[in-house]
Structure formats: structure tokens, C-alpha cells
Amino acid sequence: MDPSRSKGTADARVVVTDVADGAILLDEATGTFYHVNPTGALVYALLRAGDRSVADIARALAAVFGSDDAATFADVRAFAEELDREHLVEP
After folding, report:
1. Which DSSP letter does residue 11 get?
2. Which region holds residue 64: left if phi is over 0, alpha if psi is between -120 and 50, else beta?
3. Cβ–Cβ under 8 Å, residues 58 and 79
4. CA proximity to 39, closest of 54, 23, 25
5. All domains of the chain, ordered by start, with CATH?
6. Positive or negative, the Cα torsion across 78, 66, 22, 44?
7. Where are the beta strands (DSSP E) in the chain?
8. What does pTM read for this prediction?
């Protein structure tokens, strides 16, 4: 997956539960749980929808939070790469 351009979708085996401090992602195939903070939950939901690229998501977050575009893109890309490594998103 090229996370700068990818619009990945969630893997069908991942169950998402929203919690007060973000979300819990359960990989049903492995039984592994992942906790993500509220921003991570938002990024995951946007990736899961499959209609925005990592770059699009990063630009939107930078605008909302008033953060640096390049730094936000690097953070979102790193998170997307981690999700991909853990097989929580599909390219």
C-alpha cells in the first residue's frame, strides 16, 4: 500500500467499537485488540470509508487542528502504514 495515495478500506475481519477515549479495533482473525485515541479513531474511520486518500485526510486534520501540513501528513502516513502492517486496512 502506498499510504500517500491509498484510499484503503477496512479489513472485513476488523470489528470497531467506539469508546470514550477513542476506539477499540479487534482483529477477529488473530484475536488481537488495538486501542486508538480519538484522532486515530477518526483517521481509521475515514480510511475505512475508502473515499479519501491519506493525503486528503492529513490536509483535513491539519486544517481542523491548525497544525503543520507536512508534520500532519507524516503522522497520518505513519499511522496508515502501521494499520497496513497489522492488516487492519486493505489497499
Report:
1. -
2. alpha
3. no
4. 23
5. 9-86 (1.10.10)
6. negative
7. 9-10, 14-19, 22-27, 32-36, 89-90
8. 0.83
Helix axes 38-49, 69-85, angle to 10 degrees: 70
Instruction: Tell me the backbone φ, ψ of residue 41, rounded to 5 degrees.
Output: -65, -40
User: Strands of 14-19's sheet, edge to edge?
Assistant: 14-19, 22-27, 32-36
A 10 A CB-CB count for 56 gives: 14
C-alpha cell at 87: 492488516
**Mean pLDDT of successive 10-residue stretches along the chain, which has 91 residues:** 48 86 93 96 91 94 95 96 88 62
User: Are residues 91 and 6 in contact, defined by beta-carbon separation less than 8 angstroms?
Assistant: yes
C-alpha cell at 56: 486528503
Is the CB of residue 69 less than 8 Å from the CB of residue 62? yes
Kindly state the cell numbers that stand for 9: 478500506
